[in-house]
Structure formats: C-alpha cells, structure tokens
Amino acid sequence: MKNALDNRLPASFRDPSGFLFWGEDGRLFRQINTHYQEPYDQLMISGLYTALVKEKRLIPHQEVNAAPAEPERAYKVIEPERISFISYPYEWSFSQLKDAALTTLAIQQRAFEFGMSLKDASAFNIQFHQGRPLLIDTLSFEPYQEGLPWVAYRQFCRHFLAPLALMAHRDIALGQLFKSYIDGIPLGLTSTFLPWRTRLSFGLLSHIHLHASAERRYAGVNVKEQAATRSMGRNSFLGLIDNLASTVKKLNWKAGGTAWAEYESDHNYTAAAMSQKVAFVRQFLEAADPVVVWDLGANTGRFSRLASQKGIETLSFDMDPAAVERNYLRMRSEKDTRLLPLLLDLTNPTPAIGWRNAERDSLLERASADTILALALVHHLAITNNLPLSQIADFLACLGETLIIEFVPKEDSQVQRLLAAREDIFPDYTQAGFEAAFGGYFQIEEAVPIPDTVRTLYLMRRGAG
Amino acid sequence: MIIYLFSLLSPTHEIAAYLDPGSGSFLLQLLIGGIVGGLLILKTFWGRLRLFFLNLMGKTPVAVEETDEDTP
C-alpha cells in the first residue's frame, strides 16, 4: 500500500533537505526546502553541478515553477531527468555494485574540489541510467566543514564495502543480505562472516573489522565533545576517500562456476538452429514493435541485445549472479546504453521492503514492459518449480502486452535432464496443454517450429484467445 | 602526516547532518585519519617520483597514478 499522507514518494522522508513528489500531470518533482537553500545554491553556483552533470555522474534537473507540495517549507522545485527503471543494489551484479561504489567516491572527490562533501552515501541514491551509474539525489551535498570526519563513512561501508567484501571473499550469494538490511549490511555481521585473512588487508582491517569493533566499543559515546577537541584535516579526509577507493578496486569476483554461467555454451542448439532462433526472435520483435522489453531468464543477454541494439530499452533479468555479471561487463565494454542487466529470481521476485513496506518497491510495482521475452524459460518454471502453466501465463500477462515465448517439450534433452531424478507429475505439460493454458490469457499470433529442435517459438498478444 | 592525527583545532564543530555518523565510525576516522592521509602523501610522492624518472629516461608515462579503468 502506498503512503496515503500526500503525493510524496514513500521513500523520500529521511532527509529534511527536501523530498520527491508527483505532480498532477504525472511529472516527478523534487521540493528543496528552505533548510537546504545554502547548500543547493553552493552546488549550483560553485560549478560542481555543471561539472558532475558533464561527467554524467549526477542527474540533470531543471528549476521549474510547479507548485510545491509543502509551500511553507519550499525554497525551490526542480524537475530531475526521469530514470526509466529504478533498480536496487540487491538486484545488481558484483561489478554493478562496485561501479556504483567507485562512482560515489569519485563524486565525493570531485565535490571536495568545490568545497563540498556528500552528506550521505546510500547505494539507493545511485541508479543505472543509459548504461552508467549516476547519483540521483541532488540534495546529497553539503558544504565541507574542515576538521570534521566524513559523516557518510559508516553508510558507505555498510552499503558498498560490506556487501562487496562478502561477495568477493566469502560467497557471491551474500550480496542478498542487503535485502534484509535496508540500511546496508551491519559491519559486525560482515566482520564475523569474512575470512580471517581479510584482516591482512589494511583497507578491510580498518573499514570493516576495526570499524565493527569501534561501533561496539563506542556505542552511545558523545562525539560532540570529541569533535570539539579533535579534528580530521583535509589531507586525512582525502586520504580516507582514496583509501576506500583503493580497497574497493582491490575487491574482485570472477564470474563462473555457478549453475548457469556456462549455460550458453552448454545448450543443445546447433549453430544453424541458433541462427534460425535469432532470426525468428528478431522478426517477432519487429512485429511487436515495443518501447520497453523485459528479457526473463536472459542468461548473459544474447537475445536481450537483439532488442537493445535496435534502440529498445531492455531489462535483462537472470537469477544467476555469474550470468548477470558477464552480461553487465559486456554491456559496459560495448557501451550499450539501452541495456540493463539485473539479478532476479522469477519464482521469488524482489519484494517491497522498508517503512510501511513502501520504501523500496517490489518488482511488479515499479514498471512493466511492452514485450516480454521468455526463451528457454517455461520448462524451468513448470517442471523445476512445479508452477502450473496457467499461473505462468497469468503472471506473464501481468508483465507485458506482447510475449515472445519458447515452448520446450518433454522430448527435449534439457527437459529430460530436469525429469531425470524425479517423477513426471506433469501430464498437462504438452504443446497442446501449453497452448490451452496460454490461450486463456493471450492470443497466439504466430507459432514457428525451430528447425533441428523439438521446440516452438510463439508470438502472443495479451487478451483471451 | 602525524600532524593530522589527533591534531587540535580551536573552533567547536557543529554536527548538523541528518545521518547519524555513528560514534564508533566518527572516532575511527579520527584514529586512522593520519595513516590514510600519510598513505595518500606517499602515493602522490611515488607518482611524481615515477614521472620524474620516466621523463629522465625519455619514456612517455602511461599513467602516473592508479589507472581509472575501474572507475565508471
């Protein structure tokens, strides 16, 4: 349930500097409160805003005359450039989170040159926009106060360093802990999970292990007294940011070894069949003519690229961290601005979390697509996860207007493999059963057998057949 | 670099941020500030030294500091 108090975005309540709200015409605005007048003016006048926007590290905005949502507190209203899809750190691959971390630190370094500093370092403030991570919170800056430590240090360590260290040094799956801890993974927990050898790295020793000990030891100590007598000089401040960047750069994870990482080279398509499948998907995409495509079970994004390379905004989802990592690294090297690889388990899609269950939206609340690609997917949902075909059809009909879907029958060796160790309790899992189930939700516009295989590719349009 | 460690400043700093910086996080930064500041000075010095010798040998420096390839 959305926050019913006003037209504010439910996630926009922590910072008294301002908030996001919806205008009546569906435009998204940010109110800047009088409280934040001075830092905002400094951001704009100092040249920092122009520099960061030019470097594509900060979201551009326009100052507008729209009515503020809370006029008594308003200084200005701005309209930020719209981000087409808001993704969350627990949906990013290792390198996506790493790039988001390095972007945050690069922004902090740049801000410092203009006499400003980041007052928060939330991973949720970074979004992938046109292939690059950028800061979407224009109100994250404050004047640098010489002598003070970095106020966002703990948040940076919890949101970025902790999940990256856990993924790099313990297990890639531990990145998902972020879903349970909305303000980042606690450092004490991180320290417990990390191998002892991580204490040999100065960065991890300081920013995770000693940091966790300091949190325990000094909980509740009045630091205002300390701040009055001790200070952190400019060089120490810069040194801290530089050391965090070095520590993050040294964290690496090599994609591979997970269940799906080798799938693309391990499937049972001949080169000719694959080329024919590519041609059919391309032809169906032409017919569907979508603005937004979601590729579900995209693996490393081979078919997603058929859409993104046509300039279609494409989300490329997969449940395997290695596949998403490879997809992202390729997207980054090819500078594909229309593709966004994301981590998603379709059988347990991203839930809504946070205050009132409305701070971070579930997958289904955020957006939907024009066309859904579901290639080599239905047998995994129906057989591995026991999902009835009608439920799969119902779910896919909620997501998109048109559907390009591949049916993989029981005769296929991949399905045989899924059935190898279990009883076949799927009498309806036949081509006729598939068409009957999907016909309840879609009109089947085209069905083409893929040569040299037993599979069939369908183009369907929402609406009962 | 040690100058920065626990150096004393006369003005009282007002903490007005909306985030709780955390007492331990705040104090840890004061503690390691001198070390990380010193490391940065060494890194900058090493970069300049490397640049000096590369120039001396007539080689074109590729990158003086850490490469930026990881930074998006």
Radius of gyration over C-alpha positions of chain B, nearest whole angstrom: 18 Å
Radius of gyration of chain A equals 24 Å
Q: Termini of chain B, distance in Å?
A: 30 Å
Percent of residues in beta strands of chain B: under 5%
Tally of helical segments of chain A: 16
**Secondary-structure-derived class of chain A:** alpha/beta
Task: Give the CA-based shape of chain A.
Answer: globular
Share of residues in strands of chain A: 15-25%
Structural class of chain B: mainly alpha
Instruction: Please summarize the sheet with the most strands of chain B.
Output: none
Spell the H/E element sequence of chain B: H
Strand order of the largest sheet of chain A: 11-10-9-12-13-15-14
Q: Assign a percent range to the helix content of chain A.
A: 25-40%
Number of DSSP E strands of chain B: 0
Globally, the shape of chain B reads rod-shaped
DSSP strand tally of chain A: 15
Distance between the termini of chain A: 33 Å
Query: What would the average pLDDT of chain B be, to the nearest integer?
Result: 70
- What oligomeric state do the depicted chains represent? heterodimer
What would the average pLDDT of chain A be, to the nearest integer? 93
What can you see in these coordinates?
- The complex is a heterodimer of chains A (465) and B (72).
- In chain A, the strands form 4 sheets. Chain A has a 7-stranded mixed sheet with strand order 11-10-9-12-13-15-14, with helices on both faces. Chain A has a 4-stranded antiparallel sheet with strand order 1-2-4-3, with no helix packed on it.
- Chain A starts with 17 loop residues before the first strand and ends with a strand.
- The model of chain A has no long low-confidence stretch (mean pLDDT 93).
- Chain A is an alpha/beta fold and 465 residues long.
- Chain A is globular.
- Chain A is built from 16 helices and 15 strands.
- By secondary structure, chain B is mostly helical.
- Chain B has a domain at 22-58.
- Chain B is built from 1 helix and no strands.
- Chain B is rod-shaped.
- Chain B starts with 22 loop residues before the first helix and ends in a 16-residue tail after the last helix.
- The model of chain B is unreliable at 1-15 and 64-70 (pLDDT under 50).
- The interface between A and B is large, with 59 and 41 residues.
